[in-house]
Model the fold of this input.
Amino acid sequence: MDSKLTEKKFECFKISIKDKIAHILLNRPEKMNSMPPSFWSDLPKIINEIDHEALARVIVISSTGKHFSAGMDLSVFGKADSAQKKEAETGRQKASFYKNLLSLQETFNCIDNSRIPVLMAIQGGCIGGAVDFASACDIRYCTEDAFFCIQEINIGMTADVGTFPRLPHLIPIGIVKELAFTGRRMFSKEAKEIGLVNNIFSSSEEMLKEVMLIAKEIAKKSPLAIWGSKEAINFTRGRTIEEGLNQIALWQSGMYNPQVDMMEALSSQAENKDPEFEDLYPLKKDFGL
Done:
């Protein structure tokens, strides 16, 4: 499917799409890939266009330079003048902050809501808002020099754009609390041991090569079955086994069609060739990019 997304210039990202794999590259190494205001507005537009227009079957997110990301850029916080401080006393500023924060949270919610898997390749520091970012992705990989830090506690605030709702479903809650309360760095070996990342690589080049191979393998599968799997796994967070079973039963009763994807998978196996599944259908157009 044709798209001008890859031709668009973004402050923080470079986009490429090849072999049904969309590659989102963080591209501000001179700024340690910190997240300025444009990051928070552009990322959901990019993710949503790839997803809603069915431009790819997998998204891979990687970065450039020494560190994956230093987290939220201070420019996002803005500067409070005396008038704003007076407003804050009346509660108006607090109400605005609340709405603005919900908007920032949507930047990573779009990853959860995407129909397609999102894989992240992390080198160096994954700090502050970057941990929120990573915790929203479906699968994470890192280099030997990678580390994770809930930096917010070190600057007198609470992480607030996704780390705490998601991270306890990925790693033991005691570790989450230790990281949140101390602001210490968790290095790659520990991240692998507790299951935050699936594998560790000696270099960014080796990591990206392997992650792209995994993405290629995912892209061979039925996009509808992949979507159903992601929905079922994410749905189980905070719910009972019975609720999870009911959800997948409803999904299968509405989406499952053994005469299409299953027959294609089985016949391809019998013929020793890669199956050719139909892509997901586009949802809607025009994301203002």
